[in-house]
Amino acid sequence: MGASSILYRGIEKIINSRDKACLAPTIGALFIKSGFMLPRDLMEDLYQYYVDSGRDRSRPVPTDSDSLREFAYHLVDVIDLFDMDYDNIKDPIKLDEWVTIKDLFSTYAEDIDDDLLTYVMQFAIEKGAFRSS
Question: Do 111 and 36 meet the contact criterion of CB atoms below 8 Å apart?
């Protein structure tokens, strides 16, 4: 079972729980843990980016269950990238996210597996993250 499958199942469990007070922080912890193949600081920085900007940079992290589920599922798409299983047809990651991912991967490059670093950076190049900097 891949990291994104584990994250997806965890998100469903969290969102369907009765304790709605700590949904976003719990999803954040699960997202960071799901990125076990990357430096923890990178995952924390990336989650903070999503908390600060929201997925499309136009709204903060949602608090209602449906919007939070949509936000959390987007994090699953991001983990798919780190699991080297990105859905290039669906292509759910937007340009500003690619720029952030590229910047974080550049910062933490020494601590990232070479194959994963190459995989992610090839997508970042293809998606225009280097032209937008």
Answer: no
- What's the rounded Cα separation, in Å, for the pair 90 and 61? 22
Interacting residues of 46 by C-beta distance below 8 A, sequence separation 6+: 35, 78, 100, 101, 104
Q: Which amino acid is at 75?
A: L
Residue type, 127: K
Residue 92: φ, ψ to 5° = -80, -15
How close are the terminal C-alpha atoms of the chain, in Å? 35
| Separation between Cα atoms, residue 11 and residue 23, nearest integer Å | 9
Reported as a single tens digit per residue, the pLDDT across 68-123 is: 778 888 999 999 999 999 999 999 999 999 999 999 999 999 999 999 999 999 99
What is the Cα–Cα distance from 97 to 128, expressed in whole angstroms? 11
